[in-house]
Each structure stands twice: as C-alpha cells, then as structure tokens.
Design a protein that fits this description.
The structure is a homodimer.
Chain A lengths: L2 E7 L4 H16 L2 E7 L3 H7 L10 H15 L15 H13 L4 H13 L8 H10 L4 H9 L1 H16 L7 E4 L2 E4 L4 H11 L1
Parallel strand pairs in A: 1-2
Antiparallel strand pairs in A: 1-3, 3-4
Chain lengths: 199, 199
C-alpha cells in the first residue's frame, strides 16, 4: 500500500507554490499518495506570535530576494505579486470544493491557482478570479460559485485549519509522511534522503 | 582573485554547527576565501521581535526534531545539548581573539567549540571550558584568558554584531558571497547552484 503524503499549503506562500510544482513528481518517485490540504497561515501566525515573512524586519527583505532567486535556481516561473501577501480564503475553499466533489480536477486547480498568482499576476484574493480559474480547470463555474457560498464549505476550511494546527503544522509548505513532519520547500532533499533511509 | 565568503555563525545554533562542518569544503570547491564572523543572535531577535527557535510555539517542537534528523541525514555527530540555548559570549570572543591573533588556529577552534557543544556535551557557555578548548586548539590558555578579559575584545564583538546587523544578517548560519546573502544550512545547495550559474 502506498504511503500517504499530507501536503499542507497556503496560496499566499511562495515556498508553497514552489513545492506545488514538484510535489507530484516527488510522490510518483516514491509511490506516495498525496492528500491536499489548503490552509490559512493567519491562525498559525497567531499561535506562534509571528507574522507574514515579508513583514518581519531584516527577514522580510531577505525573503523577497530569496523568493526570486529560488525560483530562478529551480527554473520555476515567478513574478513577485503586488499586493502581497493576500487573503486566500476563496482559493482555499474552492480547493476544498474540488477535493470533495471533483478530485480528478484538484491537482490542476491547485497548479492554476498558484501559477495564476505567482506567475501571471492574477488577483486570486478575488472570488471572481478564483471562479474563473475553477472554470479553466474544468469545473462548472456556477456550481463552484454556489458551493463557495455554502456554510458547510466554510466550516470545512475552518476544521481543516484547526486539524492542521493540531498536527503541529505551522507553515507552508508543510508535509507529513508517516507521522514525520517536514517544513519548507528546502526540505525536499531531506525528504528524498529520509525516504531512501527508511525504504 | 578568490571571492570572499563571509560566514556568520552563532555557537548556540545547530544549523550554524552543521554549516561549519561543510563550509571549508564548500570554499575549497569554489575557490572562496572564508571570513569568519562569530555573532550573537540576541540583538537580531530583538530587531525582529523574535526569539530562539525552540522557544516558539509549534516551531520549537518541530525544530528539535529537525536538528536531530538533519544531523542524521547528513552524517553529522549530534547530541542535543541541555541546557539549550546557551550564552555564547565567551566562545564568540575567543573566536575573535584567534581570528585577530592566531588565524592559523581559527578553523580548528571553531570546529572544536561547535563539536564540544553539539557532539560532546561540553558547557561552552563557561569561560573555563572555552579556554580549555582554546588550549586543545593550540592556543596558549593564559594568553587567551587575558585577551578575553580585555575591553578591546569585548568592543570588537559588539562592533562585529552591529556590522552584521547593518549587512542584513539576522540568523545563523548566514553567508554572504559577492553581496549575495544566503540564510540557513539548507541554502548550501542553492549556493552551489548560484555559484555555478554565476561562474
């Protein structure tokens, strides 16, 4: 049986975006089954007494540079968005909708939302843009629009974030394989080493 | 002419220790000349409104696990010290003393201080232990003891930390090559890629 790879990601996270571009290849190399968990970092920052990376003195300036450089070194299209960071509630809800109702479109939607924001300058904080991207991913736009307005989907996102917190998730990307937590795009090579060592 | 690699490190930083075990090989591979900068993270945490990693909710617990795992994956001897973190003023001052007066012993001293704390359980927060390690590194113990008590060495450490802050240094390890800043042991592979791309 395949191992499970729980993949936690926030849409306003550049490193989450970088991870999303490599997660399926990682899973394929090691026969992992991905479970996709869109999260919101706001509640996690609150738990840690922290703030978005770019708002922290010293670290913020470095981070902006590291986003661009990492993208370039790994050959990932990247244009730093403005405004940044953004609210990603609609994008996260749409992702949960796809996961629950149309799982065959899920990976495509995640890829298009991330690329929309970080490579094409699309305002995925706006629900209308998220719905456009849903349609471009093969989902029915008006069905998605109805779903996003439902209390059950709002409640699902909230419980996903609470569950993530209870699992010790505090950043994006955050990956858990067999109870082993890995934080950051820069842990992909650690994951490879770890999987080889435990295989 | 060789490029300069400015290497900033705090002795109470596990990732600084991991970096120290690979820094000379990195420099040798790319004809870089290392300039060693022992720093204290306290003033940087203050500037960022941050705290030692292990004291941050969620992130702290993950970090303790990541220290052990990273050491294991990279084959670096590691026993998580207790107490941790510690004050490293004496270790940093001794390192500056070696750098200024006995540069041929510097890399050895850095290696022995780090291994003393992170592999051998030695209390390098204590000046007497730092002086023992100075002696084991080929320095004269009593000359080092006198130097550590001098105001000029205290002032040098303070100015080093201030200068590091002015360069945007906020963590350990922090490396600057040709004005390009890299934060973290997990940026070593980025440095390799970056050096290859700019060679």
């Amino acid at each position: 049986m395949n191992k499970i790879l729980d993949f936690y990601f926030e849409y306003s996270s550049p490193y989450g975006y970088f991870a999303s571009t490599g997660i399926e290849a990682l899973a394929a190399r090691h026969d992992l089954t991905i479970r996709w968990h869109p999260i919101l970092l706001g509640p996690m920052f609150k738990a840690m007494g922290s703030a978005p990376l770019v708002n922290i003195p010293l670290k913020g300036e470095y981070s902006r540079r590291d986003f661009q450089r990492t993208a370039k070194l790994f050959g990932i299209p990247y244009t730093h968005p403005d405004p940044f960071p953004i609210a990603t509630v609609s994008a996260a809800r749409a992702t949960l909708y796809a996961r629950e109702q149309h799982p065959e479109k899920l990976a495509t939607l995640v890829g298009k939302l991330y690329a929309g924001f970080f490579a094409q300058g699309r305002a995925i904080n706006e629900t209308s843009v998220v719905l456009d991207i849903c349609a471009e991913s093969g989902l029915n736009r008006s069905a998605a629009e109805s779903a996003l307005a439902e209390d059950s989907l709002k409640a699902l996102l909230k419980s996903e974030v609470d569950h993530a917190l209870s699992q010790g998730v505090f950043g994006s990307p955050f990956l858990i394989i067999d109870n082993e937590p890995f934080w950051g795009f820069d842990r992909f090579d650690h994951i490879e080493k770890w999987l080889q060592a435990t295989a």
